[in-house]
Write a structure and sequence with these properties.
The complex is a heterotrimer of chains A (102), B (576) and C (201). Chain A is mostly helical and 102 residues long. Chain A folds into 2 domains: 2-69; 71-102. Helix content of chain A is 84%, strand content 0%. Chain A contains 3 helices and no strands. By secondary structure, chain B is mainly α. Chain B has one domain: Cytochrome c oxidase-like, subunit I domain (Cytochrome C Oxidase, Chain A), CATH 1.20.210.10. Chain B has 17 helices and no strands. Chain B starts with 20 loop residues before the first helix and ends in an 8-residue tail after the last helix. By secondary structure, chain C is mainly alpha-helical. Chain C is built from 7 helices and no strands. Chain C has helices at residues 13-20, 23-52, 56-61, 66-91, 95-125, 134-165, 170-199. The chains are: A mainly alpha (102), B mainly alpha (576), C mainly alpha (201). At the A-C interface, helix 1, helix 2 and helix 3 of A face helix 1, helix 2, helix 4 and helix 7 of C.
Chain lengths: 102, 576, 201
C-alpha cells in the first residue's frame, strides 16, 4: 500500500502539471481567436497566430510527449524532419510563390 | 564463466515450436523466414521486370516487328512497359532484395539479437508489400492497362486520363506505391530500433559491421524522404478521383509541385537502394582480401554525410523542367559535392584490396564487378550533375545508361555477391562455384555491352522514353548501337539461367556447409548454418570490430567479433 | 597483446542512452518522424500556394466555420489532457481512473469527428467540394488525412480501453498507453497547426 501511495503522490504532481498545461493551451486558443478578430494588418495577425500555435505545439511536445525528459536522440528525431520540410518549403518558394504571383 | 562457444552437438534439442505449416512458413514472425519471403517476392517480380526489359530492348532494336513470345508493341504499350519496368525494378525488386531480404536476415544476426525488435510488425511489413505487389500486378489486367506515365509519374500525364488513356491502372499504381511505402516504413522502424537498441554487449556503434550502418542509414533516409511524396501521391489521387486541381495550372495548381515532391523523395530513394548494395560489397571485400576494411570510420562518416546530402540534390532531375533557373547552380554544387562521400566509400573498397590476399570466389567477383561498374555510373553522374551538361543530356539515353550503371551494380552485382556469400548461412549448403563464375562473367560482360552503347546513343542525341526512333533522320545512324545493346540484353537475361539452375540445385542437393565457410568475423558466422531457434543460445559478447583479418600473432587469419582475446591469440590454443 | 587486440569496452554513454530507451517508444518516435514529413509536405504546399494565391485563399477561407473549428480544437486539446492523465493514472495503478480517461479520450475523439462531419455536410450543401477551388482541395485533403489519422488513434484507444476493462498487467498497459499517447498527441499537434492555417487566415 505504501508503494501505491508513493505512486499516487508522484502521479498527482504529474497530473497537476498536465492540467496546468491544458489551461495554458485553452488560454492560448483564446488568444489566437482574439488575434483573429482584431483589426490589425493580416500579415501581423497571421505571424502572431502562428507564434501562438507554435507555443502550443511546444507545450504539448515538451510536457505531454515528455520531450523534456527524453534523451537527445529523440529530440533529433523530431527536429530533423521539421528542418527538412521547412527546407523543402523554402526551396519551393521560387517555383510556387514567385512564379504564380506574377 | 566458460568462454567455450556451444556447438550444435552440445545442445539438447531446443524446444521446437509446434507451429503449423502456416505459422511456420507463411505467416512466420521469424526474421530469417521473412527475409527469404522478401527475396522470393523480389525474384518473382524480377522475372516481370526483366521480361519487360526484353520487350523494351527488342522494340528499340527492331521497331515495328512482332516480338517473339509476345507480339507487337505499340506506343501506349511501350510507355506502360517502361513505367512498369522502372517501378517494379526500384520498388519491388531492389528494395525487397536489399532491405527486406538482406537487411531483415542480417541485422539481428549481426548485432547479436534473436530477432527484430518488432517481429509481428516485420511479418506485417512483408504482407503489406505482398499486397502492394498484387495490386501492381492487377493493374496489368484492368481496362486501359497499367500506368504509362513513367516510374516518375509526371503530371499531367499521370493526372489526366486524356494523355495516356490509362484510367484504373494509374490509380492502382498510386495505391501500390502507397502500400509499398507503408511496408518499408514499418520495416525501416524495425531496422532502426533493432540496430540501435538491441545490440548485444560490447557491440558499440563503432564496432557495427558496415552493412548494418548502411542499412540503418538507408532506413533513416527512406523514413524522412517518403513523407512529401506520400503527400504528393494523395494530391495526385485526389486530382484523379475527386476533381481537385493540385497539379493543374488552370485550377491554380502547379505541375512542378509534383516533380519537386517526387524527386525530393526520388533522389534519396536511389541512395536508399545504393547504400545496402555497398554494404554487401563492404562486407564481402575484406573477407576475400583477408584484410581489414580501409578507413572504417571514414566510411561511416561518408555514409552519414551521403545520407544527409541526398536531401539537397533533388532538383538536378529538374534542370530542364522549367523550374526557376536560379535553383540550377545550388543544386549543381550540392550534386557534385555528394560524389565525394561516395568516392570515399569506393576508394575504401579499392584500398582494402591493396596488399591483400585476394581470393576471387564468386562473391568477391560480383563485389568487384559492382565496384568497377558503379565507378562508371558515379562518374557519369558527375557529368549530369552539372546543369550545363544536363541541359543537353537530360532525357537522353546518356541518363538511362548512367542510372543503369549505378542501380544495376548495387542491386544485381551487390545482390548476387550477397546471395553467393550468405547462401551457405541461410540454407546450410554451398552453391556451385563453376556455375557461379560462369554467371558472373556472362553477366558482367553482357551488362557492359548493353549499356556502353547506350551512352553513345545518348551522346548522339537520342531521347529516351520514345517507342521507336526510326522516324528521326538524325538518329538513324545510332540504330546499330541499339541492336548491339539488345543482343547483349538477351544474353544478359539468358545468362541468369546458370544462377537459377545453381540456386535450385544447391537448395536441393548442394554440399552441406559448415558454420563459417568463408572464415569471416561477423556474428552471423558464429551460429549454425542455417541458424537455429533462437539465433544465439547465449547472447554473444563482442570484443572487437568486424574486420580483424590477418592480424599478426593471431592463431588464424581472422578473429571473430565474439572470440575472447586469449583464444584469438592462442593462449589456450583453441582452434575453431 | 599484439596489434588488433582492443580492450573490452562497455557501451559508452551515448550508446547506453540509446539502449535504455524502450524499443516501443523509440519505434513510435521514428514513425512520427515520417508522419511529420507527410503533414509537413502537405502544409508546405498549402502555405506556398496560399502566398501565391494573392488573396484567393483568404477569400475562400471566409466560408470556413471558425467557431466549429475552435470548438474542435478545444475538444482535441482536452482529449490530449485525458490521454496523458490516463498514463498518469496507469502509472499510479489506478485502474478505475485509467479506464475513465481512456473512455473520455475516445469520446472526445468521436466528438471531433462528429463536429467535422457536421462541418463537411454543411459545406458540401453550400456547394463547396474538393474540386471547387485549390483552397477547398487543401481543406478537404488536409482535414481528411488528419481525420483518418484520428480514426486510427481512436481505434487504438478502443483496443486499449478493452484491454483495461479486463485486469491488465500494469507494465503492459502503461507502456501501450504511453505509445498510443505519443501518437495521439502528435495528431493533436498537427491540428494545432491545421486550425490556424485553414480557419484563421
Amino acid at each position: 500500500m505504501a508503494h501505491a501511495t508513493h505512486l499516487d503522490t508522484a502521479a498527482r504532481s504529474n497530473n497537476s502539471l498536465y492540467l496546468f498545461v491544458w489551461i495554458w493551451l485553452v488560454v492560448l486558443l483564446g488568444v489566437g481567436l482574439t488575434l483573429f478578430g482584431l483589426p490589425i494588418p493580416r500579415e501581423v495577425a497571421v505571424a502572431l497566430i502562428f507564434t501562438v500555435a507554435t507555443i502550443k505545439a511546444v507545450l504539448v511536445l515538451r510536457n505531454y510527449m515528455h520531450l523534456r525528459h527524453e534523451p537527445f536522440l529523440i529530440y533529433l528525431i523530431v527536429l530533423v524532419p521539421v528542418l527538412f520540410f521547412i527546407g523543402l518549403a523554402l526551396a519551393l518558394v521560387p517555383d510556387l510563390v514567385l512564379r504564380h504571383a506574377q | 564463466m566458460s568462454t567455450a562457444i556451444a556447438t550444435a552437438a552440445d545442445l539438447a534439442p531446443v524446444h521446437e515450436h509446434e507451429l503449423g505449416f502456416l505459422r511456420r512458413y507463411i505467416f512466420s514472425i521469424d526474421h530469417k523466414v521473412i527475409a527469404k519471403q522478401y527475396m522470393t517476392l523480389s525474384a518473382l517480380m524480377a522475372l516481370i521486370g526483366g521480361g519487360s526489359s526484353y520487350l523494351i530492348r527488342w522494340q528499340l532494336a527492331w521497331p515495328e516487328t512482332s516480338i517473339p513470345g509476345w507480339g507487337p508493341v505499340g506506343p501506349d504499350n511501350y510507355n506502360a512497359l517502361i513505367t512498369m519496368h522502372g517501378t517494379i525494378m526500384v520498388f519491388f525488386v531492389a528494395m525487397p532484395l536489399l532491405l527486406g531480404g538482406f537487411g531483415n536476415y542480417l541485422i539481428p544476426l549481426m548485432v547479436g539479437a534473436d530477432d527484430m525488435a518488432f517481429p509481428r510488425l516485420n511479418a506485417l511489413s512483408f504482407w503489406t508489400l505482398f499486397t502492394a505487389s498484387a495490386v501492381l500486378i492487377a493493374s496489368f489486367f484492368v481496362p486501359n492497362g497499367p500506368a504509362a506515365s513513367g516510374w516518375t509519374g509526371y503530371v499531367p500525364l499521370s493526372d489526366k486520363a486524356l494523355y495516356t488513356g490509362v484510367t484504373w491502372g494509374q490509380n492502382l499504381w498510386i495505391i501500390a506505391l502507397a502500400l509499398e511505402f507503408a511496408s518499408f516504413l514499418m520495416g525501416g522502424v524495425n531496422f532502426l530500433v533493432t540496430g540501435l537498441n538491441l545490440r548485444t554487449r560490447g557491440m558499440t556503434l563503432m564496432r557495427l559491421p558496415l552493412l548494418v550502418w548502411l542499412e540503418l542509414t538507408a532506413a533513416v533516409v527512406f523514413l524522412l524522404s517518403v513523407g512529401p511524396l506520400v503527400a504528393g501521391a494523395i494530391m495526385l489521387l485526389l486530382d484523379r478521383t475527386m476533381g481537385t486541381g493540385f497539379y493543374q495550372p488552370d485550377r491554380g495548381g502547379d505541375p512542378l509541385l509534383w516533380e519537386h515532391l517526387f524527386w525530393f523523395f526520388g533522389h534519396p530513394e536511389v541512395y536508399v537502394v545504393a547504400l545496402p548494395g555497398f554494404g554487401i560489397m563492404l562486407e564481402v571485400i575484406p573477407v576475400f582480401a583477408r584484410k581489414p576494411i580501409f578507413g572504417y570510420r571514414m566510411v561511416v562518416y561518408s555514409t552519414i554525410g551521403a545520407g544527409l546530402l541526398s536531401f539537397i540534390v533533388w532538383a538536378h532531375h529538374m534542370f530542364v523542367s522549367g523550374m526557376d533557373p536560379r535553383l540550377a547552380s545550388p543544386f549543381s554544387v550540392t550534386t557534385i559535392m555528394i560524389s565525394v562521400p561516395f568516392a570515399i566509400i569506393l576508394f575504401a573498397m579499392i584500398a582494402t584490396l591493396w596488399g591483400g590476399s585476394i581470393w576471387l570466389a564468386s562473391p568477391m567477383l560480383f563485389a568487384l564487378g559492382g565496384v568497377a561498374t558503379f565507378l562508371i555510373g558515379g562518374v557519369t553522374g558527375i557529368f549530369l550533375g552539372s546543369a550545363a551538361v544536363d541541359i543537353v543530356m537530360h532525357g537522353t539515353y546518356f541518363v538511362v545508361a548512367h542510372f543503369h550503371y549505378t542501380l544495376f551494380p548495387v542491386v544485381f552485382f551487390g545482390g548476387f555477391a550477397g546471395v553467393y556469400f550468405w547462401f551457405p548461412k541461410m540454407f546450410g549448403r554451398m552453391m556451385n562455384e563453376v556455375l557461379a563464375q560462369l554467371h558472373f562473367w556472362v553477366t558482367f560482360i553482357s551488362f557492359n555491352l548493353v549499356f556502353i552503347p547506350l551512352f553513345l546513343v545518348g551522346l548522339g542525341g537520342s531521347p529516351r522514353r520514345i517507342y521507336e526512333l526510326s522516324s528521326y533522320e538524325t538518329l538513324k545512324h545510332l540504330q546499330p548501337l541499339h541492336i548491339i545493346a539488345t543482343l547483349a540484353a538477351i544474353v544478359l537475361l539468358i545468362g541468369q539461367l546458370p544462377f537459377i539452375i545453381n540456386l535450385v540445385y544447391s537448395l536441393l542437393r548442394g554440399p552441406r556447409s559448415e558454420r563459417n565457410p568463408w572464415h569471416a568475423n561477423t556474428l552471423e558466422w558464429t551460429v549454425d548454418s542455417p541458424p537455429r531457434h533462437p539465433n544465439f543460445v547465449v547472447p554473444p559478447r563482442v570484443y572487437r570490430d568486424a574486420y580483424e583479418y590477418s592480424v599478426p600473432d593471431a592463431v588464424h587469419d581472422f578473429i571473430p567479433q565474439d572470440l575472447a582475446p586469449e583464444e584469438a591469440f592462442g593462449i589456450r590454443g583453441v582452434a575453431d | 597483446m599484439g596489434a588488433g587486440v582492443q580492450p573490452i569496452l562497455e557501451a559508452d554513454e551515448f550508446d547506453d542512452a540509446i539502449r535504455r530507451i524502450p524499443p516501443g517508444k523509440i519505434g513510435v518516435w521514428w514513425f512520427l518522424a515520417s508522419e511529420i514529413m507527410v503533414f509537413g509536405g502537405l502544409i508546405s504546399a498549402f502555405v506556398l500556394f496560399s502566398f501565391a494565391s494573392q488573396g484567393a485563399f483568404a477569400a475562400a477561407a471566409t466560408h470556413v466555420q471558425w467557431r466549429l473549428g475552435a470548438i474542435n480544437t478545444l475538444v482535441l486539446v482536452t482529449s490530449s489532457l485525458t490521454m496523458i492523465l490516463a498514463l498518469g493514472y496507469a502509472r499510479a495503478h489506478n485502474l478505475a481512473r485509467t479506464r475513465w480517461c481512456l473512455l473520455m479520450t475516445v469520446a472526445l475523439g468521436l466528438t471531433f469527428l462528429l463536429i467535422k462531419t457536421v462541418e463537411y455536410t454543411s459545406e458540401i450543401r453550400e456547394g463547396f467540394v474538393p474540386g471547387t477551388s485549390l483552397f477547398w482541395s487543401f481543406y478537404f485533403g488536409m482535414t481528411g488525412l488528419h481525420g483518418l489519422h484520428l480514426i486510427g488513434g481512436i481505434v487504438v484507444n478502443i483496443f486499449l480501453l478493452v484491454a483495461a476493462l479486463r485486469k491488465p498487467a500494469w507494465d503492459f498497459l502503461e507502456r501501450r498507453i504511453e505509445f498510443a499517447g505519443l501518437y495521439w498527441h502528435f495528431v493533436d499537434v498537427v491540428w494545432i497547426f491545421l486550425f490556424p492555417l485553414l480557419y484563421l487566415t
